[in-house]
Amino acid sequence: MLKTFKKGGVHPAENKLSANAPIVTAEIPKTATIPLGQHIGAPASPIVKKGDQVKVGQVIAQSSGFVSANIHSSVSGTVAKIDDIIDATGFKKPCIIITVEGDEWLEEINRSSDIDKNLNHKSADIINKVKEAGIVGLGGATFPSHIKLSVPPGKTAEVLLINGVECEPYLTADHRLMLEKGEEMIIGTKLLMIALGVSKGAIGIENNKPDAIKHLQEIVKNYEGIEVVPLKVKYPQGGEKQLIKAVINREVPSGTLPIEVGAVVHNVGTAFAVYEAVQKNKPLLERVVTVTGKSVSNPSNFMVRIGTPTTQLIEAAGGLPQDTGKVVSGGPMMGKALSNLGVPITKGSSGVLLFKKDEASRRLIQPCIRCAKCVTVCPMGLEPYLLMNQTEMQNWEEVENNRTMDCIECGSCMYTCPADRPLLDYIRLGKSTVGNIIRSRKQ
Amino acid sequence: MDKLINVSPSPHVAGDYSVKKIMYGVVLALLPALAASIYYFGMGAIVVTLVAIASCVIFEYLIQKFIIKTKPTISDGSAILTGLLLAFNVPSNLPIWIIVIGALVSIGIGKMSFGGLGQNPFNPALVGRVFLLISFPVQMTSWPIPKGFNTGYADAVTGATPLALMKEGLGNNETVSNIMNSIPDHMQLFYGSMGGSMGEVCALALVLGFAYMLIRKIITWHIPVFLVGTVFAFTGILHLVNPEQFADPLFHILTGGVLLGAVFMATDMVTSPMTPKGMAVFAIGIGVITVLIRTFGAYPEGISFAILIMNACVPIINRYMKPKRFGEEVKNGK
Ligand code: SF4
Ligand code: SF4
In B148-174, which positions are buried (b, 16+ CB within 10 angstroms) versus exposed (e)? Predict the structure, then answer.
């Protein structure tokens, strides 16, 4: 029996169309639009101004608070302006816009592809490097990684989990990275283990990627303390709490962080970025992005410089199909629909997904038939139908008591509802209202 | 971009599920039992079924169109299902006008008066059935004797159900073993060769329907298993205490609609609890009330009343029987 998490979960059609497409380096854009807020927390503050010359890898905006991250230039050229531009969230956000000239890198960055296996680093140095390099969770959460590496006093880290689950349908960026940069990723894992001071590491991979499992199992033979754990395919196994439950069978208590049960989780993309930062001195300035969809002529995986416009990637994958009805940044279950295709790729963009017209609209909402399917599939053990009803009635006390804040917004409930109820729309509304109430209570 | 694209919050994909699929799935699961009733009761079963379904659908359409003034939703299959279940819960020689009244009560009072699909606290078909049972006790308890396919309808030979025979016999101070002599044996009961409501008789067909619904994941096993288990355990204990005064548990399960109730009536999604824990409480409650009515009450059957009583408790059950939250055990365990 393969391991998996116990409660709830669904199995949407996998549609991993780009699983066999090797990672191709995308063209450097003519203009790079680099948002200052690509992570959870305070946006970085710019340290360049209009007209400045920048090189690839140069810091252009500095972390501005405890939860924040540095931003580096992903291209070389001239800063054209610093302006508010609509990004993937649909809101205007401050961005640094750089007109690209050539491809000139900072000298201290090692651009060779030789694998550097030196593991002789001190924990503090690694954490510092991760912080300097502006690394954030590349699975999509974009939480600054160095914070997760500093274990709070009173807690102990016992195990590092690497998330290679990629449970979102369609996406294959992590899958390709594990196949093509497996050893680097494992070394990155080792570095993260040193940083945390743990002797155990586990890489969780869903069983629909047998090639990646086999490949990494070969490699980890040479790296002590790391285990590859094949997992049964079930969404949302890539959720931090679900992954921890699946691999080490511990449940993170409501309202706490994984460190509560001694676990720290990082994505495979993050592990690779850590390798590059520590061994090659290369900050986070590019990432793997899957561009896919049923009508896309060449579903692809690209290595993309941060700030590249989404349209350029769509072109590179064969152009925007005639029947496109919706474009999503990220996966189909949790991604964000874009209102503007010019938005830049950021640290958190794992994919660009093009839906056909007939896949793009929601079905008609019907009355709830109390079938309890939403309750059955909720991985957090919530009652989505009830949260929706109580949110509709603005009964905030009940919404809070029924643990709406535990919802991880995985969308399993809405995916399953036979009556096509907009459960998660309401739950999000309830979460933000209750979140505000809780905050105002604390003050 | 000059193209229009959709923008909506996640998730962007939906599973291949629909209300229609569920409703027609249950209808399909009822087909073996329908076939069995046609085999045993012939023409009567066909007439009752067609009249019940047609009148439920027509009443739903008329009420939605002219009284509530919304778009009729009869194509979702729920009215068909209510009609079919109503037919299953009445004798196969019931006069047509009584069936029509039953359908009106089921749809009009049982469902639409509460706001339609999903809003009704009580199982609509059972509301109709119980109304008829109280209003037309004679017609509702004259059971045609099953005799292979017969073409007659209202002129069928009638007799009592095994449960009624048992109740009457016990009332006359006869012993169980004595009464059993005049009742079909257990194997015959399992195949459905007995008097009774047209859909309740054939245990074999009902079990087939149960299996189908489980495979299609339309229902979970909890309610039927807990319900039947409770009836079995409770009557079993009584039987052990005094085998000559209380019939054996298998007899109780195979007669009087326990299986029909457990598999198709109590599992009605709208009127049953939302969590496995809640379903267990609900089903055990039905089981206990059924046996109490049968052994100590005035009616020989009791499951219809038991289900309706527990339907009324569902809101309270849902309030206290919460799903196991993620991270809960750890918190309490520490
Ligand atoms: S309620 Fe939240 S956690 Fe539960 S299934 Fe729905 S989106 Fe996922
Ligand atoms: S899945 Fe949909 S129809 Fe079923 S109980 Fe939940 S909200 Fe109601």
Answer: eebeebeebeeebbbbbbbbebbeeeb
